[in-house]
Write a structure and sequence with these properties.
globular, 320 residues, mainly alpha, Na+/H+ antiporter like fold
């Protein structure tokens, strides 16, 4: 019960900050430029610093080498969930111009703007490197299979290959580069100068509040008109909040790892797997001429449902 109450408190805190972002947008204090600046600060500045700081401060060479195996969990589960999403889209006879968006919503979660703040709030900054393992895996699959499916919704005759050079370049984001830099420092046992370590730590603390303010801006701009009920969105939500974390749980049972590593990775991956859909799904649906309104419905609906599921997985994480 205590874990559930903690989860509820964290949800209220998170949605309070999201509401501040929405309120400031309503008051015209935040605009489209603010949204771009916050996204830049989170993904290009704060998150890379946070990743480097946490890996170097909290992990040893043996910790990293001992945990490399667990990256198979997000890779396999996201890949399986993607193909399950495609099968479900055909089974429910979803129109072809929605199948790519539906599958992306089914398989990919909001790992950075909501997932990371939730994990840190629930289980502490020790979860950051494992959050990044999930992010790395999802980024690779999204920029290959996910983008290809969304593009086919809007351009059904498009014959572009899944593995394009443009797509491969998109994989090398600043957080991903920072992740490998931090790993390199620890694996080679290179000492980080104190002023740099402190600087990375201070800057990294902007990630959680700015991520949530950004989410508030996005949700306000979408408006409550996006909440129109569509039964296929409900089907997708089953994949997002139930099937995805169940796959993670099942896959984790196959990992030959220590009890301590099992605990922290299982908590982290369960939360990451059960987050609302990726904001980028809406962005690229608009970009490729797919059904962006449908993607927006999915984002709004799953964000609201997360009020229920975050406390649930906080409780589950507290007993594993």
């Amino acid at each position: 019960m205590e874990a559930i109450l903690t989860g509820v408190e964290i949800v209220l805190t998170i949605f309070f900050i999201i509401a501040i972002g929405a309120f400031c947008t309503w008051r015209k204090w935040f605009d489209e430029n603010t949204q771009k600046v916050l996204s830049f600060l989170v993904t290009k500045v704060g998150l890379p610093c946070m990743v480097v700081s946490n890996i170097i401060e909290k992990y040893t060479r043996d910790d990293i080498l001992g945990s490399l195996l667990v990256i198979l969990v997000p890779i396999v589960t996201i890949f399986v969930n993607y193909w399950l999403g495609q099968g479900v889209a055909r089974l429910i006879r979803l129109p072809k111009n929605r199948r790519g968006v539906f599958t992306a919503m089914f398989a990919f979660s909001n790992t950075i703007f909501i997932g990371l703040p939730v994990n840190v709030a629930l289980f502490g900054e020790a979860t950051v490197p494992y959050t990044m393992l999930y992010y790395v895996s999802q980024t690779f699959i999204f920029w290959t299979l996910g983008i290809s499916g969304i593009r086919k919704d809007g351009e059904p005759d498009d014959k572009t290959k899944i593995f394009t050079w443009a797509g491969i370049k998109k994989l090398f984001t600043m957080p991903l580069i920072a992740f490998f830099v931090g790993m390199l420092f620890v694996l080679l046992e290179i000492p980080m100068p104190k002023f740099l370590g402190d600087g990375f730590s201070y800057i990294g603390k902007i990630v959680t509040p700015l991520s949530l303010l950004f989410t508030g801006i996005v949700l306000y701009n979408m408006g409550f008109k996006s909440l129109r009920f569509d039964w296929s969105i409900l089907v997708m939500s089953v994949g997002r909040f139930l099937i995805s974390p169940l796959l993670v749980f099942a896959m984790m049972q196959l990992m030959p790892i220590s009890a301590d590593l099992m605990s922290v990775t299982l908590k982290t991956f369960l939360v990451q797997a059960s987050m609302p859909i990726m904001t980028q799904t809406v962005i690229f649906a608009k970009s490729y001429g797919a059904d962006a309104e449908y993607a927006t419905q999915g984002l709004m609906f799953t964000t609201i449902l997360s009020v229920v599921f975050i406390p649930l997985y906080a409780w589950i994480g507290g007993i594993v």
